[in-house]
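Hey all, quick one. A colleague (J.T.) asked me to put the zinc ion job into the tracker so the inputs and the structure tokens live in one place instead of scattered across chat threads. No bug as far as I know, just bookkeeping. Sequence used:
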Amino acid sequence: MSYKKTLSLLVVLVFAVACSTNPFTGKKTLALVPNSQILPMAFQQYDQFLKEHKVINNTPDARMIKNVGQKIARASERYLTANGYAGYLKNYRWEYNLVQDDAVNAWCMPGGKIVFYTGILPVTQNEAGVAAVMGHEVAHALANHGQQRMSAAQLQQLGAVAGNLALAKDPENQQLFNQYYGVGTQVGVMLPFSRSNETEADKIGLTLMAIAGYDPMVAADLWQRMKQQGGGAPPEFLSTHPSSDTRIRNIKSWAASAKAEARKYGVTSFQK
Ligand SMILES: [Zn+2]
């Protein structure tokens, strides 16, 4: 068998054993780097990040972030359990922190590790706006979008190193992790998610915020405000989350079904 054939066969084998299912879409996704490896890295990075930044505690804003976070986490658990994925979040260690930083940004690392920067609060404006961003970021984590990007990068490396099928060693994994889950100050700028990942996160995020009791239409207004933040130097969040008319249109068209989904969980009023 030729060397190339051997390589592609092995790649197929790796694919076959290294997929996980996205509980929201039922689609198989690439998972060369298992969560058992990713989550400990995430937890370590998160703790490190908190050590190096000013975490705000016990202010009304900090309490709001935690409160919304708990509601989105609870909504995620209810949704996953109702859809046959009980236990999907068993390795999650939810945490929600507000950090003093003017950057217009927020993120959720694998395992439910969330950071909001104070700089995004003027754009989110209120609790429902925070829920829109939180729902979206948590959706990326739940759908393992970072894991897919990291796996895709490993696959590329696999090709590049021509036949060295050993998965990247720990320090390399660490570097890939930083790049693909990015926490800004680490290896550099976080690489953007693909457009399809963004669309998926928008859709899942709307459902989560609706189940948590927030009006999903708020997300459309949020992205509109986000869009107006553009200009000379677009904020960090916008560099990975371009806000377009298509995005806003999609959100408006999905809002009703997100509410309908939430009603299945007994949610009847939606905070704006
Ligand atoms: Zn996103």
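Adding what we noticed when we looked at it: Strands lie at 19-21, 28-30, 55-56, 95-99, 106-109, 113-117. Residues 6-263 form one domain.
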